[in-house]
């Protein structure tokens, strides 16, 4: 399917050409028709950029014809801070240049007039300032605001103070991590006030069982469910590097030093063995990085923030170009830096890779084997989406029966072959 076959308006096609999108992505092919038909849509795609482009095209198609005459809020775009509403706002504004009069406005903690940090303010007037800021924007009939972009906090404040007419909203777009859909009380309240006639479009990185429950309760019966790029491991090559166990290193050390030492000395040897084991992983990592200078974009996955910090520090000491992800708030800016053409190494906790929008990820290294099989595809899967070939290397202690069994389980469950890679 081509853009021309989608029956889009000329100004939309012109914007698509200007953006350099030569052909529709999978998600664009799948949801454009139900969106134009006014159906509710639940769509899954890993790429945040793809999500934003898709929604921008759909909204431009829907709103541009009446942009000069209908200036009130017709579409509500709700997203999480991790998805960066500021960036979404900026991207939509670029797309909306093709339709004179079509504007998006951003309601977030960054533009509410909050003076709580000013020297002459004790912070008590901050809520009033926010309300005034929202009121001036939303009550001005002359100001175009066809699309309102917001996060949950500002949205609930606006609704609490009757500053947004939800009955006039025709389309509600939700772009969030799947766990936020269920766990946030504010979002549960939001479901209750959604206008019944509004079209609801949910875009997420992964369609989990909870979302099926949300569909049953909050979406119309004919809602379209579209999966553009399920997490997959089929596009990747999988290897493991055998890391000697701590016990093995300790026995080897004791054999070389001989017997007959005191209790305290044995304790010191045990500590030394732990260090050797950890250094062995570091040795393997340095060997891989040193022998593959042509690989420009590398991701190292860790199980904890402390290990992420430690590896980041050591890589910086080696004068290597390194970034790290320690929290949800880091993700958008880090992705922007990582996607530049220069060589870069990204160190991240495994559970923070969901929805991490990376354009390049030639090599992914799992610094420690996951404890459960589902964690493997959750952390590695995003890097193998949409046919992107990725080399995946696991640091594995095969003398540990649990880790060895894990390798066998991965091969069986995901129908992949994990081959040994000789590094040291």
UniProtKB/TrEMBL annotation:
Alphabetical UniProt keywords: ATP-binding, Helicase, Hydrolase, Nucleotide-binding
Basic and acidic residues bias spans: 253-266
Signal peptide span: none
Domain of life: Eukaryota
Alphabetical list of Gene3D superfamilies matching this protein: P-loop containing nucleotide triphosphate hydrolases
PROSITE patterns in UniProt: HELICASE_CTER (PS51194), Q_MOTIF (PS51195)
SUPFAM superfamilies linked to this entry: P-loop containing nucleoside triphosphate hydrolases
Motif extent (Q motif): 1-29
Coiled-coil region(s): none
Keyword Nucleotide-binding: yes
Residues covered by the Helicase C-terminal domain: 281-424
UniProt-annotated stretches for the region Disordered: 107-135, 246-273
InterPro entries: Helicase_C-like (IPR001650), P-loop_NTPase (IPR027417), RNA_helicase_DEAD_Q_motif (IPR014014)
GO molecular function terms listed in the Swiss-Prot or TrEMBL record: ATP binding; hydrolase activity; RNA helicase activity
Residues covered by the DEAD-box RNA helicase Q domain: 1-29
Protein name, entry field: RNA helicase
């Amino acid at each position: 399917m081509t853009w021309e076959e989608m029956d889009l308006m000329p100004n939309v096609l012109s914007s698509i050409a200007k953006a350099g999108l030569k052909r529709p992505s999978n998600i664009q092919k799948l949801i454009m028709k139900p969106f134009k038909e006014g159906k509710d849509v639940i769509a899954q795609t890993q790429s945040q950029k793809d999500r934003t482009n898709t929604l921008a095209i759909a909204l431009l198609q829907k709103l541009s014809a009446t942009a000069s005459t209908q200036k009130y809020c017709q579409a509500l775009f709700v997203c999480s801070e991790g998805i960066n509403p500021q960036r979404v706002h900026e991207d939509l504004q670029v797309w909306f240049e093709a339709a004179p009069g079509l504007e998006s406005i951003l309601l977030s903690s960054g533009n509410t007039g909050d003076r709580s940090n000013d020297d002459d303010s004790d912070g008590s007037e901050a809520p009033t300032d926010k309300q005034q800021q929202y009121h001036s924007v939303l009550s001005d009939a002359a100001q175009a605001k066809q699309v309102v972009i917001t996060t949950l906090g500002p949205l609930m404040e606006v609704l609490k103070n009757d500053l947004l007419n939800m009955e006039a909203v025709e389309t509600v777009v939700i772009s969030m991590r799947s766990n936020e859909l269920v766990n946030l009380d504010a979002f549960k309240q939001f479901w209750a006030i959604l206008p019944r006639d509004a079209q609801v479009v949910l875009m997420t990185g992964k369609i989990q069982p909870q979302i099926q429950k949300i569909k049953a309760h909050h979406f119309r019966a004919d809602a379209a469910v579209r999966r553009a790029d399920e997490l997959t491991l089929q596009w990747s090559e999988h290897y493991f590097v055998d890391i000697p166990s701590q016990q093995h290193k300790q026995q080897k050390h004791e054999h070389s030093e001989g017997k007959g030492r005191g209790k305290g000395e044995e304790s010191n040897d045990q500590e030394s063995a732990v260090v050797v084991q950890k250094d062995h992983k570091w040795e393997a990592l340095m060997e891989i990085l040193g022998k593959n200078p042509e690989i420009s974009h590398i991701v190292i996955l860790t199980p904890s923030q402390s290990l992420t910090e430690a590896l980041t520090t050591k890589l910086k000491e080696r004068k290597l170009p390194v970034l790290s992800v320690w929290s949800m708030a880091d993700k958008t800016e880090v992705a922007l830096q990582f996607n530049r053409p220069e060589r870069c190494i990204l160190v991240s906790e495994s559970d923070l890779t969901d929805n991490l929008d990376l354009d390049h990820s030639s090599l992914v290294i799992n610094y420690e084997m996951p404890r459960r099989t589902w964690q493997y595809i959750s952390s590695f899967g995003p890097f193998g989406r949409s046919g992107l070939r990725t080399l995946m290397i696991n640091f594995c202690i095969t003398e540990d029966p649990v880790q060895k069994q894990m390798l066998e389980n991965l091969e069986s469950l995901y129908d992949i072959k994990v081959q040994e890679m000789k590094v040291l």
